[in-house]
Amino acid sequence: MSIDLRLMRYVVAVADEGGFQRAADRLHVAQPALSRQVGDLERALGVTLFTRRPTGLTEAGREFVASARRILDDADRLLERSRAAGRGEFGSVRLGFVTSAAYGAVPRLVDAVGERHPNLTVDQVEGWSVELVEGLLAKRFDLVLSRSVPERPEFDRIPFQREDLIVVVGAAHPLAGRAAVTPADLVGSRLLLSRRHMPGYRAALLSALGHVPEVEDTRLPGWRRFDELAAGENYQLVPRTLGDHLPADAVMIPFADRVPAPDLELVWRREPSPSAGLVIACAAGQAPDGGR
After folding, report:
1. Is the pTM here over 0.85, yes or no?
2. Backbone φ and ψ of 184, nearest 5°
3. In whole numbers, what is the pLDDT of the chain averaged over residues?
4. Which residue from 46, 156, 270, 288 puts its CA 20 to 30 A from 179's CA?
C-alpha cells in the first residue's frame, strides 16, 4: 500500500503534541477527522500506532514516526531543490570572455556568483570577440564579457567594468623609461593590432590616438605575443587591467591624460535562462552606475 505524505504529517503531529486535540489545533483540522484518519491508517497497516487515554506511541508507532520524519524531511528537501532549480540556482552558465576580462572581471563575477548561489557553476571560455559573438548567437554561450559586441535587437547588455587604456612596450623601446606619454609621442612607432578584433574595438583604439598610426597585425590577443613587442618600436594599447599582468621585460606606460578604454560589457540574448538571470543580477550589483 502507499501512504499519503499528509497522513505521515498527521501521525508525526500527534506524536509531537502528545494528543489528538493539540495536533488537530496545530494542523488546523477538526479533531474527530484527525482521529478517524489515523484510525483508518492503523487498520490499513494492521498495527496500532498510538495508545489512547493517555495518547502515547506504541513500538510500531515509534518506528513509523522515525521513518516518517526521514521521508518528510526528504520530501521537503526535494520540493525546495525543485523550486531552487526552477529559480536557476542549480546548473551551469556558459560564460565567454575576452583576454582583458580574465584577471579582474571574471574572477570577481565568478566569486560573487559562488557567494550568492553556491550550487550554480560558471563555465568559462576565453576567446576573441568575433568568436564570442558567434557563440552567443549560436547559443554556445549564455553570457559574454566583451568590449566590442555590436548592437543587435536580440542582445541585452550592461556595463560591467570601466578603465583606462595604457601603452605597453618592450624594455628596449625608446619610450620605455617615460612616466607617461601622449598619443603624439607614439607617432613613428607601430601599433600591434589584430585584424581579429571587432571593427568597433579597432576603431575605438585608433580614435584614442588621434592620428593614423602604422599598424602591424598581431596574431594573439593582448600582450601574449610578446616577441612582437620586444623587437623594434612596436607598442600595444590595452586596458589597464592587463598592465598588472605583463611579462617581466614588458613596460606599462600610462597616458598623461586619461584615455578611456571601451567599456567591458556583459552581454546576453534576450529572455535569458533563470540561471543566466541570476548571474546577470550578480553582475548588475557590481557594475558601474548599478549596471545602467
Report:
1. no
2. -65, -30
3. 89
4. 288
Residue whose cell numbers read 552581454: 267
CB atoms closer than 10 angstroms to residue 80: 11
Q: How would you class 154 by CB atoms within 10 Å of its CB: exposed for 0-12, middle for 13-18, buried for 19 or more? A: exposed
Please provide residue 16's backbone torsions phi and psi, each rounded to the nearest 5 degrees: -65, -40
Grid cell locating 145: 564579457
Distance CA 203, CA 212 (A): 11
**Contact between 226 and 131 (Cβ < 8 Å):** no
Q: What is the DSSP letter of 263?
A: P
Distances (CA, A) of 132 to 67, 156, 161, 196, 246: 52, 15, 18, 12, 24
Cα separation, 152 vs 174, whole angstroms: 43
Model confidence band, residue 157 (pLDDT cutoffs 50, 70, 90): very high
In total, the chain counts a number of residues equal to 292
Write down the residue that cell numbers 520540493 correspond to: 79
Buried b / exposed e over 123-139, threshold 16 CB at 10 Å, is ebebbbbbbbbebbeee
* Residue type for position 284: A
